[in-house]
Amino acid sequence: MEILSNLIDGFGVIGGLIPILIIMLGVVMGIIAGAMPGLSPSMGVALLVPFTYTMSPTLALILLVSIYIAANYGGSITAVTINAPGTPASVVTAFDGYPLTKKGKPGIGLGVSLISSTVGGFIGTLILIFFSAPLAKVALKFHPAEYFALAIFGLTTVASLGGKNWIKAFIAAIFGLLINTIGIDPISGVSRFTFGISYLYDGFALIPALIGLFALSEIFKQLEEGGHKTKTEMDLSSEWPTLRDYIKLKFTIIRSSIMGTLIGIFPGAGATIASFISYDVTKRLSKNPENFGKGEVSGVAAAEAANSSSVGGALVPLLTLGIPGSATTAVLIGALMIHDLTPGPRLFVTHPEIIYGLFASLLVANVALLIFGLFGSRLWVKVTNIPKKILFPLIFAVSIIGSFAVRNSFFDIISCLVFGVFGWILRRNKYPVAPIILGMVLGNIAETNFRRAVMMGGYDIFFTRPTSLILLILGLLSLIFAFIRSNKNLKPKQN
Amino acid sequence: MKKYILILFLILSFSNLFATQNPKIESGFPSKPIKIIVYTSPGGLIDVTTRKFTEIASKYSDATFVVENKPGAGGIVALQKVLSQPANGYTLFACTKSNISKFVSTGGTSYIHALDWLAMLMADPECVITNRKMEISDWTDIVKDAQKKNGEQIWVGPATGGLDHVTAIKIWEQFDFVSKWIPYKSGGKARAALLGKQGHAYVGNPREVLGNPDLKISAVSAKKRLEQFPDVPTFIELGSNELSNEYMWRGFAIKKGVPAEILNWYDKLFQQVNNDPNWRTFWEKGGIEVVYYGPEKFGTIVNSDAEFFRHYLGKIGIIKTENYNIFTRLGSRKGSAFLIVMLLLFNLIVGYFVYKSPKRELLSRILIISFFLSLSLLFYILSFVFPESGVVGPSVVPRLWIFLLIPLNLLLLIKTVSDKNIAEEHSGDVNKVLKFILFLAVYLVGIYFFGYYISSFVFVFMSMYMLGYRKFITMLIISFCWIIFSYLIFYRTLYVPLPIGRLFEILL
């Protein structure tokens, strides 16, 4: 009850015209930051930090979290319309979102992604408000052995992503894991596979790789197939999901939102893993798993609900422990400190108005996201109407500038192009490219936690800690299940 | 005639863009925004320091400060950015003592001597932080427990070889015990491990315990007890004089060669910020000592820190002291370049035959397998160069991935060769793609020499042409609009400093 009364006070804090305008501004800027390949939610938030110096701490936080929430959704827009995921977490959205666009139904993909994001954001926020304290305790108990097991569990999703091409999918994932070892070793501090090139000390940045593997390779593929010559002949405006379509997705959205929030609370796990795992679970539970990757709306819903709800999860360790759960929450900690606030449990006691104002603003930001998203989606659909002869050069240009913007590095532009060419070669030889991104995302978590766990308790620690053991068994079962299913699908064709 | 007017208009617009981006240095400094390069992502303490500094400095100067985060490789990426800029005083490097560790382990003294160490603005004493809820949280108990466990006690913290790690080693030496250092990606994650009772101690700065009542400082490396934490004993009280002055500094450096009058301008500004009451209160309440050491004293401190790190990094094996066998030779810059060239050459020759072959479909699949196998071989050989430290050294995981990648590729090779159903699919217009890739490569070269704006204008226009679009006015308008969009959104709004090109850097 105390939480509810505090929350009502929180709504009082953001009740004026200025806070509402700031939420709206944050949401619009967040959608743009997320949709622009190369600008991540953390960059979007960081860019706005200097503008918050002169604001009150409450208003500053409201603006920043509004951007955070909206940027996570924004990434899905370009994933659905042009197969250029704006954020790593929206890679999964592209699996089915872009095929929907290719079928002439971008509105379906955008609509489902928006509603799933909004509902996911709400559920994540509600879990944050009501269960943050016990969840933070769970997050603290998570040992490196468990993080490693979680990463392995995440990697097993490759089996179902690959389908009958599972060997190629695994090769792609391991390639991602291997190139992730380039750079300064996070555990011992020595440089690995850098060839003395200082740009490689920090390894390959994820975003240029993402842009190259998805956006550039897609254009190369379409150029090869002569896709730029065809005219778009789709009646796009009439293709939007109905209320019944959304209701059909309720279990997928709720389940994925809960999973997304829970995965989001573990520092370092984050939105990308949440969306991969939720997508995989949804596919396995589906009656029509063969439709996934071909424009299945529940795939879009699972990915978007999970990555949006992970925002609430990532705020749990930030607010309850003062520990960032994601890159963006690290920026928020900095912003709090600049306003002379120290994040952590004492903040609930010393400045409850800020915490509950923040909670209230998260809920309102989700409503604003829905409103602006509905309006914006209709504009974005028009992007798919632009003739490819004009659109392709602009996507190239966006890719180049987006890759550069990540670290202001020319090297990242070159790596984007190299990944683009490589992605095209792989795709025309039936290798899925998403596992490379999964490998790059999970590589660091898997390696560092594997080595930490072994340093702490030897190799048997993975099997003596119950949570780790359960996750590893789940991973193994998930692999076996995927292979059995893949064989079943193959047999009738062979017969 | 219209064409010429249009061209003239475009040239003028471009000139205007450059003029805004690179105004000539006028008599008074500063005449354009001062960029401060931060080596961490936004949110780190040096980032907060820099942003707070810009806020306070704005009171005393009309200069516009732009904070640019260039994270990566412990500060090397940011340093290289600073060094790539002209020595005109418009690019500062926000640095900490941790950078010196990375400079020593990578570029050595050349990195340190490439900078003028302008101002050290704060020094927070290093301290050992423990979890109040654990049975052992007092310093004397920590020491007893560590000695009893004989190397099994766990200390958590950020990067191996960084300041906190090296300080921990020094503390262990002084109190005659050894512990395990478990590094985490950031201090925050290491603190989470401490709160989760996965380690006994964490080395950090006093400010890090604020806000969380479960965290406790068990000992501090300062000459006397901190006002803000009067109950915390110093290492001197605990029996070690050697640990009386271990601290993390934060400050600013600038590329060598900046004119003296600009250095004086900075000197004055740093002193003003240092004396600002808001600046002092903000940091001092977290136990951070606010100081101002100018170039001379700061330079001496940096050199002494470099010696300190050289000693300890050698000791823990990050700086290699002994070598060599056949693999380490192959892993050297020349050796690895030789290996890469050989493997590339091999794959290119195979690729050429694949391209020319009627069995293109089958052979291209084999070529990809060959690439993955070559990469595995290259990385496997190079993994022998890494120093083997601890239970799981730096080569363990890469080799694990390699050992998975090789059999999977061999399996795929067998499947591919034995698959008689491989149809020779119509592969579309590959040449068109190759031409486009070449054009993109030319575009990148163009960006390097002529900058983003001109090259992108030409690229957008030409690529529309290559795709068969022929409405020239529309093409010009779209190309021009793209440049304006990039400039307004990326450069003006998001402060992304788009490259202006080597040619214009020289000319302007």
Please explain how this structure is put together:
The complex is a heterodimer of chains A (495) and B (508). Chain A has helices spanning 2-13, 17-35, 41-48, 57-82, 91-102, 106-141, 144-155, 157-162, 166-179, 206-225, 243-248, 250-264, 270-285, 297-321, 327-338, 345-350, 352-381, 388-407, 410-428, 434-457, 461-464, 466-494; strands spanning 183-184, 191-192. The mean pLDDT of chain A is 86. Chain A is globular and about 60 Å long. With 495 residues, chain A is mostly helical. By secondary structure, chain B is an alpha/beta fold. Chain B has 19 helices and eleven strands. Chain B has helices at residues 2-21, 45-60, 76-84, 97-106, 109-113, 139-149, 163-174, 187-195, 235-238, 260-275, 277-284, 295-315, 326-331, 333-356, 360-382, 396-418, 430-466, 472-493, 502-507; strands spanning 34-38, 65-69, 91-96, 115-125, 127-131, 154-157, 180-183, 201-204, 215-220, 247-255, 289-293. A six-stranded mixed sheet of chain B has the order 2-1-3-10-4-11, with helices on both faces. In chain B, strands 7-6-8-5-9 form a five-stranded mixed sheet. In chain B, helix 14 (333-356) runs antiparallel to helix 15 and helix 15 packs antiparallel against helix 16 (396-418). The longest helix of chain B has 37 residues, at 430-466. Residues 15-26 of chain B have low confidence and may be disordered. Classes of the chains: A mainly alpha (495), B alpha/beta (508). At the A-B interface, helix 3, helix 6, helix 9, strand 1 and strand 2 of A face helix 2, strand 2, helix 3, strand 7 and helix 8 of B.
Could you give the topology of this structure?
The complex is a heterodimer of chains A (495) and B (508).
Chain A: H1 2-13, H2 17-35, H3 41-48, H4 57-82, H5 91-102, H6 106-141, H7 144-155, H8 157-162, H9 166-179, E1 183-184, E2 191-192, H10 206-225, H11 243-248, H12 250-264, H13 270-285, H14 297-321, H15 327-338, H16 345-350, H17 352-381, H18 388-407, H19 410-428, H20 434-457, H21 461-464, H22 466-494
Antiparallel strand pairs in A: 1-2
Helix pairs in contact in A: 1-17, 2-3, 2-4, 2-17, 3-4, 3-15, 4-5, 4-6, 4-14, 4-15, 4-17, 5-6, 5-14, 6-12, 6-14, 6-17, 7-20, 7-22, 9-20, 10-18, 10-19, 10-20, 12-13, 12-14, 13-14, 18-19
Chain B: H1 2-21, E1 34-38, H2 45-60, E2 65-69, H3 76-84, E3 91-96, H4 97-106, H5 109-113, E4 115-125, E5 127-131, H6 139-149, E6 154-157, H7 163-174, E7 180-183, H8 187-195, E8 201-204, E9 215-220, H9 235-238, E10 247-255, H10 260-275, H11 277-284, E11 289-293, H12 295-315, H13 326-331, H14 333-356, H15 360-382, H16 396-418, H17 430-466, H18 472-493, H19 502-507
Parallel strand pairs in B: 1-2, 1-3, 6-7, 6-8
Antiparallel strand pairs in B: 3-10, 4-10, 4-11, 5-8, 5-9
Helix pairs in contact in B: 2-10, 4-12, 14-15, 15-16, 17-18
